[in-house]
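Data card: per-record layout.
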Amino acid sequence: MRHIFLPLIAALGLGVALPTFAPAQTMEAVTSARLLPGWRMEDGTHMAAVELRLAPGWKTYWRAPGDLGIPPRFDWRASRNLAGIDIRWPTPQRIRQGNDVTVGYADVMVLPLHVLAQDAAGDVRLRGTVDLGVCRDVCMPLTLRFDADLEADATARDGRIAAALADRPLSAAEAGVRAVSCTVAPGEPGQLTLRAEMTLPPTGDPEMAVIEAGDPSLWIAQPKLSRSGDRLIAETHLIHSGGRAFALDRSKLRLTILGTQQVVDIKGCPAG
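The structure for this 272-residue chain is written out next.
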């Protein structure tokens, strides 16, 4: 299995231990936040996780939360013996905010962190900050700080982390995706239109799609879905955050279909 480890500063993920809160209201949002130290695996990498417990009614966001959410942003630079982290996102939930729907987690979020050490025989010191959004009737940003040791001789598996690893979206093959293709065309000035067509059995009505471009400078509107049997079509448009012209790499596109019965993760979308 190929693993992609993120650099020490990245756009997605988080780590926490004892949080500090700025607005008084956020004290009500997070009841506890800690890093689960996990275990060192046979290949020398380490599996840890962040556990975030939210008060009733509060929610936080997934890596691609939709138009209204605030995705986690983290900074690993203060860590020691850390080469990179691969974040294993559990299956998210759909969150209704008024007339809008975003994507995230409620109650308890356990976010597995697959850690690559510079020296596989040594402990890893995870230290840094994460900026994330929490939401109830209103939404607000929150900054948490973490500082924890991942010991090289820790071997006992943590059931909470194992459960979060198992709670993942289905792959395209597991969900029975038989075909997927994308058509890109010029749209309004500064925009590209994207039409993704896939052969995918229904995942549970109503369905929702999230499309990621693999480039944080590109903004993708909430796709419009249409379905006829196993044929699902998602249509949207893309804009560069800096207002510049851009090209789209279809191999980096990631389509997540969220149904009421299952969630499907489709990586890559060749030309139609």
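Known properties of this structure: The first strand starts at residue 9 and ends at 10. Residues 1-25 have pLDDT under 50 and may be disordered.

See the next section for split statistics.
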